[in-house]
Design goal:
2 domains; 10-stranded mixed sheet; 6-stranded parallel sheet
């Protein structure tokens, strides 16, 4: 069995019990079984780009931590990755902040990472690159002579061809993607978006529905919907600490139900619209006064980017407005928490909430929806209200699917969820639960690696014949 090489923006902590999410656990377990490497940035903010990476051996795994300078962290990570690619891939060209120094840093950091990783590779390694920070990595590895199979998985959405074509450097980015053997997406929509771009731009020749040739290279694109450690999360949801138990008992005694949302503080999550929908629910149904509350946890992220500071201020203003209009001395309708909450606390909070409110404006998958389903008590489950623009909506069709831009529709579906009969709740949840447990993190991991292992090896051709990152930059305008 080939070694597995995982490359991500941040290198994982591979010590036992260090992972907070089922996905990291699954990837780490696969590495420990096969042996291999996890390579990525060390997370420090004052390093030196290109400095000798720190190597730590843990069993059969090498953890290779590369450093970044403060300037490259600002330009590669906060700049190009999160001020250009993130809004672009979430269909928000209006928020793209393209600057030349961002682009230069992004491509230079990827080339540096490729050179650092290359000397640790074995000839038969299986390389799996993760997410938008590292799109050019395969091209730079190929330039250095890498012939191993390289797969790429995009954890966020991929935009439609007309939107992508309006973005800076779109040709350069797609050319970089063509150096992979397999590209995995969360949804069929994302697969279709790249396929249409390749067909319309004549960048590559289509061989079948999901396979393209590019010179002597063969590229496969496919859908691999990501999952969670469903069984583990379900077990975690049963174990509540004393504070959570007391809160649930208090609500039960008072006959109050809870709507819950959990997100990173990000403009793609539709949080202002969600707050407004809850306010509309209370406005249209005064009988719900003191009978329902909304708990929204939004952990901080990328606070140095202006768009994120703006969304935080907007949510604080909306919270004050809604509570000012509807609260009573013994009832706060909207509780907004702007900090991270441990998973072991969140899981029982999901279980004790009668509605899961998951309404991103655009999302690659959204694992919160799957966590909410896994956490529910099958005999008395809550109801999932889910955005049609979350990747999870392709799978979780038994949820109440809503348009997150339609405040009135979301309010109506919240009311429907709160009033849904037990039999219907059980029927919907049983179907959702089966999907979440079948397509879990392990199934996702195995399906991607099985396809990558069967992909054609990169051809050993003259490097001068390859199209490498940046060679068609002039066509991107």
């Amino acid at each position: 069995m080939s070694r597995l090489v995982i490359v991500s923006n941040r290198v994982a902590d591979l010590r036992a019990g260090a992972h907070s999410g089922g996905l990291a656990v699954g990837l780490a377990d696969a590495l420990k079984e096969r042996g291999g490497i996890w390579f990525g940035w060390d997370g420090e903010e004052d390093g030196t780009t290109g400095a000798e990476p720190q190597v730590e051996t843990i069993g059969k795994v090498e953890r290779i931590a590369a450093s970044l300078s403060a300037e490259d962290l600002a330009n590669y990570y906060l700049g190009y990755a999160n001020s250009v690619l993130w809004p672009m891939f979430h269909y928000r060209l209006d928020l793209v902040d393209y600057q030349t120094e961002f682009s230069e840093s992004y491509w230079r950091v990827n080339e540096t990472f490729a050179r650092q990783l290359m000397r640790f590779l074995n000839p038969d390694d299986l390389i799996w690159v993760h997410d938008y920070h590292l799109i050019p990595l395969a091209g730079f590895l190929r330039q250095l002579g890498c012939r191993q199979k390289i797969g790429f998985f995009l954890h966020i959405p991929f935009p439609p061809s007309d939107l992508l074509s309006a973005a800076p450097e779109h040709t350069r980015l797609v050319d970089a993607l063509l150096n992979y053997d397999l590209i995995g997406f969360q949804t069929q929509t994302d697969v279709n978006n790249l396929r249409h771009y390749l067909v319309e731009s004549a960048t590559a020749e289509q061989l079948d529905e999901n396979t393209f040739s590019f010179g002597d290279r063969i590229l496969r694109i496919d859908r691999f919907p990501i999952g969670i450690d469903a069984a583990g999360f379900a077990d975690m949801a049963i174990e509540a600490d004393d504070e959570v138990v007391m809160d649930q008992m208090r609500r039960r005694i008072l006959g109050r139900r809870q709507i819950i949302g959990l997100d990173r503080l990000d403009y793609s999550k539709g949080l202002p619209e969600r707050f407004k929908a809850f306010g509309r629910l209370l406005e249209q149904h005064p009988e719900l006064s003191k009978k329902v509350s909304f708990l929204q946890v939004a952990s901080p992220t990328r606070e140095a980017v202006d768009a994120y500071a703006d969304i935080r201020i907007e949510l604080e203003t909306l919270t004050g407005s809604i509570n000012g209009r509807f609260a009573d001395f013994n009832w706060t309708p909207l509780r907004y928490i702007n900090r991270a909450i441990p998973r072991e606390v969140l899981a029982p909070l999901y279980r004790g909430s009668q509605v899961g409110f998951v309404t991103p404006l655009r999302d690659g998958m959204n694992l919160v929806a799957k966590e909410y389903v896994a956490a529910q008590k099958p005999s008395d489950p809550g109801v999932l209200v889910l955005s049609q623009f979350a990747g999870a909506a392709e799978e979780l069709t038994e949820a109440l699917i809503v348009n997150p831009y339609d405040i009135d529709e979301m309010a109506r579906q919240l009311h429907r969820a709160l009033e849904m009969p037990l039999d219907e709740r059980r029927e919907r949840h049983a179907a959702l639960r089966q999907k979440v447990f079948q397509q879990d993190a392990r199934a996702w991991l195995n399906s991607f690696l099985n396809v990558l292992e069967g992909a054609g090896a990169a051809p050993a051709k003259d490097l001068a014949d390859q199209v490498l990152p940046g060679e068609r930059t002039a066509q991107s305008s």
